[in-house]
Amino acid sequence: MPVLEHYLNVLEASRRLKIHPETVKRLCRQGDLPATKIHNTWLIDKNILDNFAGTYNPHRGARKRLIK
After folding, report:
1. Domain limits of the chain?
2. Which of 8, 19, 50, 61 has its CA 20 to 30 A from that of 35?
C-alpha cells in the first residue's frame, strides 16, 4: 500500500472543504491545518482533514466599505 495514499494535496483538500485552494495553503502555513510540506507541495493527512472539517467554520471576512 503506497504511503501517499493516506494524504491529499491542496487541491483535493480544498474540494473536500469547499474552500479556495489558497485558503487551504494559508491554513497550512499558519498551522491551523496540520500538514507536511515536501518541496513545494503541502500534504494533508485524510484523517486529520476529516477532523478539521468537522470543526472548521468557513466564513467570509468583513466587507470593505467605500467612503463617500
Report:
1. 3-55
2. 61
Beta bridge partners of 30: none
pTM: 0.81
Q: Give the residue among 11, 1, 9, 15 at the shortest CA–CA distance from 44.
A: 9
Helix (H) or strand (E) holding 12: helix 10-17
Q: What is the mean pLDDT of residues 6-35?
A: 96
Sign of CA dihedral 30, 15, 11, 23: negative
Helix ranges restricted to H, 18-65: 21-30, 46-55
Q: What are the C-alpha distances in Å from 68 to residues 40, 65? A: 44, 9
Query: What number does CATH give the domain 3-55?
Result: 1.10.1660
- List, for residues 2-14, the tens digit of each pLDDT value: 778 899 999 999 9
